[in-house]
Here is the input.
Amino acid sequence: MLYPQRLSQFTREHADTVAALLCGFLLFLGWFALHLGALGFAFLLLPAAYIIGGYESAREGLTTLFKEKELDVDLLMIVAAIGAASLGLWRREYHLIIDGAILILIFAISGALEGYAMQRTERSIRSLMSLTPDTARILLQGREEEIPISQLKVGDQIVVKPGELIPTDGIILSGYSTLNQAAITGESLPVEKTVGEEVFAGTLNGYGALQIKVHKPAQSSLIQRVIRLVEQAQTEAPPSQEFIDRFEKGYAKVIVVAGILLATLPPFLWGWDWETTIYRALTFLVVASPCALMAAIMPTLLSGIANGARQGILFKNGAQLQKIGKVRAIAFDKTGTLTTGQVQVFQVVSVSEYTNNDVLKAAASVESSSEHPIGKAIVQAAGDLDWVAAIQVQAIPGQGIVGIAQEQQVIVGNAIFLQQYVTNLPEQLQEMVKSWEQEGKTVVWVAQEGGAAGEQGSRRGEVMGVIAIADQVRVEAAATISRLKKLGVEQIVMLTGDNQETARSVAKAVGIDRVYAQLLPEDKLNVIRGLQQQYQTVAMVGDGINDAPALAQASVGIAMGVSGSDVALETADIVLMADRLEKIAVAMDLGRRSQAIVKQNIVVALGFIMLLLVGNFLGNINLPIGVIGHEGSTVLVTLSGLRLLK
Here is the structure.
């Protein structure tokens, strides 16, 4: 029973190939029967070859004719083949029946090859679909139970064991492991994850068991959004393909009219005999059909989309793949795009009586009770040091925080706040702080007093040092900007709502000369419009809600996938799944390669059509040669488009 099932499955999966093989086998037997003079046997085999090889093309052609009232290239091929067979029967020149059967056979083989070529692209894209398991292991009253992914609810706790796929996005409640995120973000190296960090559906767990809390519906997970967007990209035709589609509909009508004229006028104008006239008209129908032209664009763009998805670059449609290759100007948001968006300790300076570690330990002791990002950055920087959490901690919003650590009152905050507790601020530190602030860094002063909290009047406190906090520039930002300039991008600007000093310091660090600071969302939008007037095709790279208007206005909107807001991800045309800026240059290269291949394919397609038409009118080609040239050019441009898969 197993063998028939496998045969049935193979037949379903490779129907076009099976049809082409049967057509070829029957054609050979029919030709052999004609050669032996067994006409009756030949007239049984050859029609069967026509039906088996041409059924799918005839069905599609007739469906298009009756439902859409449009002529289809497939139908033209069938008409040409039947016309050749009819002419052969009429003139009793049975080799013409063989010619028609060869036309159908080559058309069937071409369809099978194109199908395999496109399946390769679709497999590359649809591999995303298999990245998430069908079930998840949840904890219910202390017991593990497997349920379908679709039944997961926000708040559920799931268990992921070593070597398993993460079933949905969530936050780690307990455990530590390394996760392979290559399928989602394109990162080649595993990433360490621990309590409090987010994990994504479709990533592969390493050696540690994890307990994860579901914090968003399964259908809203990053991988599900990717799948929906890729499906959308497959179905949406770019403007160039839409133009070719419209051209093909009009062109098919022109071919039919021209074919009718060629089948009727030459005997009266040039004295051709009717057999030659009709044969040339049928050959014309074959060689003038724009199959290769129709295959010049979409296989290339789908291959580019698949290539990008493998590298963590999500193109929402083929039009954006084409546009990114034409970009002449790029605007970058600052926070979360050129920078990480997460503040870190930049530098620590202590006064002579203390060390830098003393300053960090004192600050961490009180900041450990704070939820402020600056406090978290200080605690993280002091992670390897031996410090004790302070007691009686009191935070004054916008100013600072105080607490008791090892019987010493510790004060952390801005200069004005600190002056309530200390007599004076060291001048050398004030000069350094002024310089840091001009560079856009946030400065925290650290001091300690000997008395109990609240004894502010004694002013026995002394400054321990200062800590500079800064949003870190992405390590790859400068190299990315340099690479984009080498690729020929004429203008690169930075847009930010931050102050001018901070903006200029970041711009200088990454190599951007033109800066727009203190911008509201509508201001960013206006800058993009101005760039478009000057450079036409403009890209915008951003991550936040305030970037959404500019992302929508830009010719190509590029969003950071991990740190980006949902609004930015939905608005953008391209998503960088791993937040890796260097992928912008990769996307531009893919776009330029796709443009070059599409142009090459169009030239090849039109060139073949012109050569075959000239050969037909000069009488140098017959129907089978015309079919081979026509279908060969179609397969050639399809395979050419698949080069972008590499």
Remarks:
- Confidence is low (pLDDT under 50) at residues 451-459.
